[in-house]
Amino acid sequence: MLINAGLYREKHLVEPAMATLILGSLNRNSLWSSHSYSPCFEKVLAWDMNNGVCGLLQAIQVVDGFLQSGDIKHGLIVAGDSAQKTGEKQHYSIRAGAAAILLSKQPGSTGFSAIMTESYPDYAGDFKGVSYHQQGKLHLSLRTHDSFAEHALHCVSESIEKFLHHEKMKTEDIDLICCSQMPEGLTKSLAERFEMGDRVIGIDKPAQKFYTAAPLMALHSHFYKPSYQLARKILFVTVGSGISTSIALYNK
Amino acid sequence: MNSSSGIESIGVRLPELKESSNEVVGRMKPKARIKLELITGIKERHICDEHEGAHDLAVDAARDCLRYSAFKAEAIEMLLYCGISKLDSKLLYTYEPSFSSSIKHEIGANRALSFDLSNACAGMMTGMYIANNFISRGIVKNCMVISGEYISSVCTNAVKSIKSSKSGEMASLTIGDAGAAVILDKHSTAFEALELQTFGQYSHLCIGQLSPKYRGAQMFTQMRKLHQVSLEEGPVFVENCLLEQGLTYDDIDYLIPHQTSKRALSKGGEVFKRYFGSEPKDIISNLEKIGNTASTTHILALYSILKQGLLKNTDRVLLLSFASGLVIGAAVFTVKELREKYGH
After folding, report:
1. B89 at interface of A, judged by CB pairs closer than 8 A
2. Is residue B1 part of a domain?
3. CB proximity B207 to A under 8 Å
4. Which of A137, B68, B170, B265 has the fewest CB atoms within 10 Å, counting from its CB?
5. Domains, chain A, ranges and CATH?
6. Which residue of A has its CA nearest to B102?
7. Which span out of A231-235, B37-41, B127-131, B257-261 was modeled with the highest average pLDDT?
8. Do A244 and B101 count as a contact with CB atoms less than 8 A apart?
9. Which domain holds residue B41?
10. What per-residue confidence (pLDDT) applies to B10?
């Protein structure tokens, strides 16, 4: 299975699924021909997950399910957004970038063990990404309400508490929280709220303009650091429009 | 894929406003005019008025589906929005927040796990495929898969652009608007086969995007090539899909293919007949009054024949999807109790 969890596509593409174009490119790439995971050799279903910043963790949830049921052997998830060179942009400061994660079934309890997504419709108007025509030009606009950061922090904190309660865990059981880049200041706020100090990690400042790829960028940037190397239970946290939150527990 | 879920109920929504093929052709440049109705078999299609959009179509279809369902909205545990277009009545396209999130709250399915996905015209079948996995594993008991396709701007914009019958936008003239919904659950008669496959090497053959020039979207299709590769890959895919479940093409009573044009359906039927040496009782077409409604076509056609009382309880139906990507999908099920729900 190949899922594209990216949202803002080149030339405002709506069809086919971006994942099918990615699959087409992979199939044309001769470097894959001898690779054991090559999509050339497998029956692949490619499709797009469209759920903003939370799409990545939800895609992991879907792939995890298909791995558990044995319907697939490997799942590749790609998340990337374009710089949008077509048309006019308002408040669109997303930096072009992409990341990918390949999942396969692991023995024992290693890997993603629980994933939860929540939505808070009262705050649906806080953050919107829309395209429209005005005066003969295509506009892309990201509209963020002043209250988004405050509401997002409230929602994600509540979701983490709910998740920990559901999993019968306490914050002391979590070695590391790896969180999304938005809203600004989320890492610091969560560290204070859950009294976890530097056990809450985010994405480094220069990379904060990445969007759906940001959680993987954050993971990548911490991959070889002692805090990640020593961690055993890692909580991935994303919060985005909707307001939606996704929480995933990873056991190393 | 092993399946333990089946179709519990379906619902649809067609806008009241209609546009005939003659009206579409009448708006085209004189040199570009073709015999659209004759070629495609589409006499008319439903189109949204100035107060309707994709979200509205999906919500109305979801409510229609709930009318036939044993589930109340609050009992829906998962909801997937699978439409291509996310255009509102003013042709504003919403990237985020997700439609599924707002729709579930609008219909009262507040506790449903939800997300949006897209896979061109195979969106709803992809949604059913994912829903079946969640239901089969016992993560949820049911799932509503919905789509609202407000895509007629593709036709409107093609009319403005097309200069000759060789234009890459000709397929856009077949498009109509519609909403569809389906509830899957573990108690209904399970799918006997449910498979999808992407043939990414053909992903460039149909491209749809928001138009940089006009309001709404535009679609560019290499029609002949897409049709050709679909008919090359399709029979083998279907054969393998059926064989894995111990079925053959002979076992299929009704085939509901993706609704594109009369010629495409006719040619497809011939190719399948030649390949398998047999044919179903009927290949369903609802093109004449509806046109090509993208991801909603199979559910619209199924709804129509259920309402007509065409199906017997023992009939086996194959929903066959061909979508940009190239995605081919097949869902096989026996009608059974679904028939009674729709008045027969």
Report:
1. no
2. no
3. yes
4. A137
5. 2-108 (3.40.47.10), 113-251 (3.40.47.10)
6. A121
7. B127-131
8. yes
9. 6-185
10. 97
Are B179 and B243 in a shared domain?
A: no
Domain shared by B29 and B110, yes or no: yes
pLDDT, tens digit, for every residue of B128-141? 999 999 999 999 99
Quickly count: other Cβ atoms within 10 Å of residue B221's Cβ.
21
Q: What pLDDT was estimated at residue A27?
A: 80
Query: What's the structural domain count of chain B?
Result: 2
Question: Between the CA of residue B79 and those of A42, B48, B111, B146, B236, what are the distances in Å?
Answer: 29, 24, 10, 8, 32
Instruction: Flag if A138 and B211 touch (Cβ within 8 Å).
Output: yes
Write the single-letter amino acid at A184.
E
Which candidate in B203, B211, B220 is best for mutational testing of the A interface (most A CBs within 10 A)?
A: B203
Name the nearest CA neighbour of A5 among A44, A51, A74: A51
Residue of chain A nearest B328, judged by CA positions: A45
Please tell me whether residues B73 and B146 are part of one structural domain: yes
Q: Above pLDDT 70, what percent of chain A?
A: 94
> CB-based burial of residue A60 (10 Å sphere; 0-12 exposed, 13-18 middle, 19+ buried)?
buried
- B285 in a domain, yes or no? yes
CB contact (8 A) between residue B116 and residue A241: no
* B167 and B259 fall within a common domain: no
Give B342→chain A minimum CA distance, Å.
Answer: 32
Surface of B (107-136) touching A: CB under 8 A: 113-120, 122, 126, 129-130, 133-134, 136
> Which tokens sit at B102?
């707002």
Residue B85 contacts A where some CB pair is shorter than 8 Å = yes
How much is the CA Rg of chain B, to the nearest whole Å? Answer: 19
- For strands A137-144 and A111-119, give the pairing: unpaired
Chain B hits for A12, CB-CB cut-off 8 Å, are: 93, 209-210, 212
Distance from CA of B4 to the nearest CA of A (A): 12
Domain end (from B185, B204, B239): B185
Contact B136 A242 (CB under 8 A): no
Whether B262 and B114 map to the same domain: the answer is: no
CATH number, domain containing residue B210 = 3.40.47.10
| Weakly modelled stretches of chain A, pLDDT under 50 | none
B194 touching chain A per CB within 8 A: no
For residues A212, A216, A222, A224, the Cα torsion angle rounded to the nearest 10 degrees is -160
- Position B33 scores a pLDDT of 84
Q: What is the mean pLDDT of residues B139-162?
A: 96
**Residue of chain A whose Cα is closest to the Cα of B240:** A43
Give ipTM to 2 decimals.
Answer: 0.95
pLDDT digits (tens, 9 = 90+) for B279-302: 999 999 999 999 999 999 999 999
Residues B290 and B142 in one domain: no
Beta strands in B120-238 (DSSP E): 142-149, 178-185, 193-198, 206-210, 217-221
Last residue in a domain, options B140, B166, B185: B185
**B272 in the same domain as B180:** no
| B154 and B283 belong to one structural domain | no
Give the nearest partner residue to B200 out of A12, A20, A55, using CB atoms.
Answer: A20
Q: How many CA atoms lie within 13 A of B203 on its CB side?
A: 25
In a domain, B337, yes or no: yes
